[in-house]
Amino acid sequence: FTEIKETRLKRLEVGINLLAAVIKRIESPDDISNEMIHPTEMVFDILEKFKAFQHPSMDLMAASLNVCAELLPFFSDEIFRRFVNLNVGPKVTSHHLDYKAYSNGNGFELGLIGYYLINIESASGKYSFLRAYLNFVEKCSKLNLHDIYAVELPGLIFIIRAVFNGIHSWNFKNEQERMDILLFIFEYIHDILTIPHDIVKEDTSKRLLRDICVYSILYLDNASALLRFVALGNAGLQAFMENESNWFAASDSNLNLLVLHAMRILMQSLRLKGSIVQNMDSLSPLEQMIYTQPKQRDTLKIIPIVANYMAYPFNRRFSVLSC
């Protein structure tokens, strides 16, 4: 793009961000004025046009996708259908696999967002489109749309396999963005793991999503990725807190919340092990990393670290969870 075109793109991006902010505050479709109809339609044209470019403006596409996400509660079927037809998100090529197959990536394709993540956003260190996509997936989940195979299921596999396992090695211009994405992932996975039993029992699609989370954490590489946060320990957290000017506000900082969510996910995954395996005596890779034998080298030291969280002075929830 020329400098003039880049300036125009930036102005367009600012306008679309404003549109998303306005739609976020409306309460019903009747609140969408006639003047807003054309700009809302335009965001799909922008996504359709720019996805064909080898290096599109990620910020502009992210702003457009955020408008789609804000429109979902009002026009869920239409927005859902039009997003799927854009073919920018990941997808699953089979609807008949079990949770183990999906967890291992069988029948899964990264799609355009995978290309953007690998070739554009990780190179630039800015992840605006990834965050917009994660926001869209979360909105779809909250609306309980029936077809999980179009957005929710591929979105979850993408989060678990592509984001959760790799984000620690990505280049970030702003470390706060890494923390924000991680916090979103942990909250999203925890929400799936804590879906009420009566809903999981009646809804096979929710059961599938939950089982994928449990299996991925207990048996796949996500185990070590999760324990890395649980094992941060009192010393690491206290060093962070002591560098903060406001301890009261910092007690609920992203780092503290990440460790808390990691502990919650760990406990819930262990509780739900019986829902995916029959032989409870056989240790999963996650449990093997936790319950190391005295003669084995224990680099993570999960049990003593979690026990020490009982004495963590900056957040009471650590002592409750560690018990």
- Low-pLDDT ranges: none
Structural class: mainly alpha
Q: How far apart are the termini?
A: 57 Å
Shape descriptor reads globular
> What's the average pLDDT?
87
- Which strand order do you get reading across the main beta sheet? 1-2
Strand content: under 5%
Largest sheet: 2 strands, antiparallel
Backbone CA Rg: 21 Å
Identify the quaternary structure here: single chain
The H-and-E topology, N to C, reads as: HHHHEHEHHHHHHHHHHHHH
The percent of residues in helical segments reads 55-70%
Number of continuous helical runs? 18
Number of strands: 2
Descriptors:
mainly alpha, 66% helix, two-stranded antiparallel sheet, single chain, 323 residues
Question: Could you please describe the fold and organization of this structure?
Answer:
Helix 6 (111-124) packs across helix 7 (128-143). The protein has helices at 3-24, 34-50, 58-71, 76-86, 99-103, 111-124, 128-143, 152-164, 175-193, 197-202, 204-219, 222-230, 233-242, 247-250, 254-271, 285-290, 302-308, 316-322; strands at 91-92, 108-109. The longest helix has 22 residues, at 3-24. Helices cover 66% and strands 1% of the residues. The mean pLDDT is 87. The protein contains 18 helices and two strands. The protein has 323 residues and is an all-alpha fold. The termini are far apart. The chain has a two-stranded antiparallel ribbon with strand order 1-2.
